[in-house]
């Protein structure tokens, strides 16, 4: 039975198995992995030659703990960007949202220690608001996913908690200063961190005729972010208990759209507070039966202050958001003979409270109006059966039922709940010669979020409570190869066919979400690793997608906005025994389209960027100390994920860390 990407099993046990699978994939001894040798930027997680117990029916990629240490990232969006097929644009709300294989960002589930991190009000998560120091491991899953992933999960990125000590201090472009520390005390890890910046670098060639005065720093992109966390992994009466908690607080500005004179967002996020508590218990119920239980609570608060113009002095309006979410996941695993069964139950309930007010003379009035309350409950049941036709062939079939209940809808009339079946069929085969072949076909439904149905975006959107859920049929073929000497290769064609795709239109100067007749995403993932010797490694991956509407409007370009046709990455890495190490990475973003002020799609520029890092480890009487320097976007290339919202220009970061 394919284990879920969400870490329902204890990470201690899962990490040992994962290390073994990665070692087989890369042809490395487990001892090398245990010493933190990061050979490739990403690893395809596959079964070993006889399709062992962690055979994956979907495409999985991995960023190891050692690779995370190499990246020296500040926030989670920088970590997730290292995963193949993942694109992370920053939208007009200032949110760094992950997009997987060109699909909608609301089709992607984000997990932390098995808990769903997506804010259910919009089923998205701003990855730039969570510090990278919280995380020790990252994985993605794409393709037809099993029913146990839960409601609306057509793709997934899973983050696992940091489980080792260390510390770092760094300074960089935009007056970025950050520091973090983590201390291991027996089975627990305690830590925290803080970062502050005046803004992100602006590339010299960026064309921003509006809302941009400084030549080198992007308008209104300052950020302050602090965090504390605790993690416990221990045995308890024959069971394994895992508890993790974090609290993040801060504020940040949101870059305005610099291509329009009117209608741009002039916002700031104040009072950000994000708290998550997760607990998981692995319980053996017999020699062939286990139960994995995960429960969590999540609290997310933010105040959105809208300003009249890019001077950010005259306050216009305030939106206060308060989100409270709790969830539960149960996975029952039972083996009998050549068959394995897994039953799943997922439950998630979230309440969004929103209060809006207008400033009068830059002051809030005493009476701020009523609080609108929206409550959503989602749950799913699933069953999956896997059968081994010998050591080199396995078949899997799974069926589930997903339900979305809109229990409170603010001032809007109550709408009908959504219920739909999901399923997946898959086949895996060991073809010999280091090859593993697989095929999967699945069906899933993605329901409209409460924000898509009822949200106004501070007078930017028209509500549309008549949205229908998206129905998605997806398929993929996979071929993965390793030579047992450190080299590997994968090739994965994929297809997504959607009915009732949720998109946008313009109505009297406002935006409104609507259902299209449908859309289709077809594409190809490919990549691999080459280990030339102990010191030098080369890795590369490319994702090509072809995204089109099924019934495009006459006279309009047939595209979906902000979906690049090509993503490609190549990384060369050098590690010397003397403690010197470095890597050079090239990234390419292909053609994408974005809506102008009239809603017409216009092409965005292609872009290729280069990132460089060098480090040196000092060994002394104390702890090993690593000095590092990182240069991102060496050529100061203009990268434009969305019209009027360029990405960061050339950025320097220098610092040290205690290993």
Automatic annotation (TrEMBL):
It is a multi-pass membrane protein. Its main location: membrane. Pfam families: Plug, TonB_dep_Rec_b-barrel. Residues 260-634 form the TonB-dependent receptor-like beta-barrel domain. Keywords: Cell outer membrane, Membrane, Receptor, Signal, TonB box, Transmembrane, Transmembrane beta strand, Transport. It is found in: Cell outer membrane. Belongs to the TonB-dependent receptor family. This is TonB-dependent receptor. It comes from Novosphingobium mangrovi (ex Hu et al. 2023).
């Amino acid at each position: 039975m394919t284990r879920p990407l969400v870490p329902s099993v204890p990470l201690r046990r899962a990490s040992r198995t994962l290390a073994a699978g990665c070692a087989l994939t890369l042809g490395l001894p487990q001892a090398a992995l245990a010493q933190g040798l990061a050979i490739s930027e990403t690893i395809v997680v596959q079964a070993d030659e006889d399709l062992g117990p962690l055979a994956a029916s979907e495409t999985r990629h991995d960023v190891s703990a050692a690779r995370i240490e190499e990246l020296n990232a500040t926030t989670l969006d920088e970590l997730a960007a290292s995963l193949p097929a993942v694109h992370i644009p920053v939208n007009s709300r200032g949110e760094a949202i992950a997009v997987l294989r060109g699909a909608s960002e609301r089709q992607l589930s984000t997990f932390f220690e098995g808990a769903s991190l997506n804010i259910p009000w919009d089923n998205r998560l701003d990855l730039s608001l969570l510090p990278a120091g919280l995380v020790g491991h990252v994985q993605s899953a794409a393709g037809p996913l099993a029913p146990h992933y839960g409601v609306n999960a057509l793709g997934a990125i899973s983050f696992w908690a940091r489980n080792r000590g260390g510390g770092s201090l760094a300074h960089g472009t935009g007056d970025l200063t950050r520091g973090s520390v983590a201390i291991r005390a027996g089975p627990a890890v305690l830590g925290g961190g803080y970062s502050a910046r005046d803004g992100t670098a602006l590339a010299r060639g960026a064309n921003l005729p509006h809302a941009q005065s400084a030549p080198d720093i992007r308008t209104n992109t300052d950020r302050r972010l602090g965090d504390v966390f605790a993690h416990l992994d221990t045995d308890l009466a024959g069971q394994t208990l895992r508890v993790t908690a974090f609290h993040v607080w801060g504020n940040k500005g949101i870059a305005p759209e610099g291509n329009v004179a009117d209608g741009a967002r002039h916002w700031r996020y104040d009072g950000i507070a994000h708290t998550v508590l997760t607990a998981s218990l692995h319980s053996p119920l017999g020699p062939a039966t286990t139960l994995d239980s995960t429960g969590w609570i999540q609290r997310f608060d933010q105040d959105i202050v809208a300003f009249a113009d890019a001077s950010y002095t005259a306050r216009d309006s305030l939106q206060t958001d308060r989100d409270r979410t709790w969830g539960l996941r149960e996975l029952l695993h039972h083996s009998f003979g050549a068959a394995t069964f897994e039953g799943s139950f997922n439950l998630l309930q979230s309440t969004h409270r929103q209060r809006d007010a207008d400033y009068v003379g830059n002051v809030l009035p005493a009476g701020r109006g009523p609080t609108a309350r929206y409550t959503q409950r989602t749950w799913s049941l699933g069953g999956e059966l896997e059968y081994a036709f010998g050591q080199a062939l396995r078949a899997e079939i799974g069926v589930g039922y997903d339900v979305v209940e809109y229990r409170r809808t603010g001032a809007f009339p109550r709408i009908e709940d959504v219920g739909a079946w999901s399923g997946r069929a898959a086949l895996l085969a060991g073809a010999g010669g280091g090859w593993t072949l697989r095929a999967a076909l699945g069906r899933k439904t993605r329901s409209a979020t409460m924000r898509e149905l009822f949200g106004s975006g501070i007078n930017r959107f028209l509500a549309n409570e008549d949205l229908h859920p998206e129905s998605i049929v997806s398929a993929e073929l996979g071929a993965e190869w390793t030579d047992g000497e450190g080299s590997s290769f994968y090739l994965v064609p994929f297809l997504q066919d959607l009915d009732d795709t949720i998109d946008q239109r313009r109505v009297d100067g406002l935006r409104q979400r609507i259902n299209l007749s449908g859309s289709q995403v077809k594409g190809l993932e490919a990549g691999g690793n080459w280990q030339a010797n102990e010191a030098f490694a080369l890795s590369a991956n490319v994702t090509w997608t072809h995204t089109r509407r099924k019934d495009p409007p006459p006279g309009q370009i047939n595209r979906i906005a902000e979906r690049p046709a090509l993503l490609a990455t190549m990384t060369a890495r050098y590690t010397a025994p003397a403690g010197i190490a470095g890597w050079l990475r090239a990234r390419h973003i292909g053609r994408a389209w974005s809506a102008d002020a009239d809603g017409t799609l216009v092409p965005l520029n292609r872009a290729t960027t280069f990132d460089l890092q060098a480090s040196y480890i000092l060994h002394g009487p104390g702890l090993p100390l690593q000095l590092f320097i990182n240069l991102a976007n060496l050529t100061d290339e203009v990268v434009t994920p969305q019209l009027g919202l360029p990405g960061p220009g050339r950025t320097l970061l220098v610092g040290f860390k205690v290993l």
